[in-house]
Amino acid sequence: MSLPPDDVESAPIPLLEPREGIPPVVATDEALAEVIAAFAAGTGPVAVDAERASGYRYGQRAYLVQLRREGAGTALIDPVGCPDLSGLGEALAGTEWILHAATQDLPCLREIGMMPTRLFDTELAGRLAGFPRVGLGAMVENVLGYALEKGHSAVDWSTRPLPEPWLRYAALDVELLVDLRDALEKELDRQGKLDWAHQEFDAIASAPPAPPRKDPWRRTSGMHKVRRRRQMAVVRELWTTRDRVAQRRDVSPGKVLSDAAIIEAALALPVNVHALTALPGFGHRMGRRQLEQWQAAVDRARALSDTELPQPGQQMAGPPPPRSWADKDPEAAARLSAARAAVSELAERLNMPQENLITPDTVRRVCWEPPHERTIEKVAEALGAHGARAWQVEQVAPLLTRALSVSD
């Protein structure tokens, strides 16, 4: 496919059909074996994408996997019919995978046996290159001059059979990823940032799976309203019950019971089903059995002894919230202020978001507990210990060293 000329005044060209048409959905072992052979024989990097059913189903599993490679064309694979794609992952071992916002798709791909050893993240590349809008549609339009139709991004991808317009959308998502990767590589090289990007991509590819969250119920939306430990226990019981029901029914927890309803019940501490029914989110449309289930959870929390109640606001690892630094440690507050200003100025000069230059959490940690020796070498060691990549250390260590000295 020939790309449009580099003319910022020209209107984007609508991309309406995959160049070889919509491929059939692969849902059998026999069809998967053919895809594996084709992609193993292909050349160059492989474009990869996955569609989930967020907001519809429990968890973040993949319901469609799209791939494209030179010599193999495009494949659409149904992980419901083909739940083990480890053979495909092995066939692509050592091949560079191109993903857009890789950290969103890698967990669900890992579940079905697909993990890259090398990758190129087009969204992250766009951030490092200074593009103001880094969604796939915006990047394809700004870099390549084509307009992608993005109307099906939030549909229920667990639907079977998948409608043809959705399959067309899915195939087009990987249609130009290789072209986008090549153009971004050239731009990063022109800006002297290509090695930085490779370090970032390597860090994503080698990162271990995220551990399960501790006390995930504490992330219930509206939790800041809940002050008393007994109320926190209600949130915990309702959240746990909801999660168990959602997992059994394979639906999004929010479709079982809203966060807002959980918070209302925690604040009100209803004594019976009648009182529960009067609360927002527990209306008369909810069946009697459901209401009794939620009231039983509330009753369990009400019956706990004081020693069994959750502790308020678990102490987070790391420094306190920056808003309290001026009172707790004015010198640390001065260091943080200087560091933030320096990072902001450098990020602007490098034309990239501050959080991609160095994470705000890393800056806070180094400013709260700086190395005893305020030298570039020691600051560099501290940054590395917090996970900063070599390019980030090289860029940030000198300016943080100066910022850490403002209170001396």
TrEMBL record:
**Any one GO BP annotation for this protein:** nucleobase-containing compound metabolic process
- Residue numbers spanned by region Disordered: 205-224, 306-328
Query: Do the record's keywords include Glycosyltransferase?
Result: no
User: Does Nuclease count among this protein's keywords?
Assistant: yes
Which residue ranges does the record assign to the HRDC domain?
228-308
PROSITE patterns per UniProt? HRDC
Q: Which GO terms describe its molecular function?
A: 3'-5' exonuclease activity; nucleic acid binding; nucleotide binding
Gene3D superfamilies (UniProt xref): HRDC domain, Ribonuclease H-like superfamily/Ribonuclease H
| This protein's UniProt keywords | Exonuclease, Hydrolase, Nuclease
Top-rank taxon of the source lineage equals Bacteria
Which named protein is this?
A: 3'-5' exonuclease
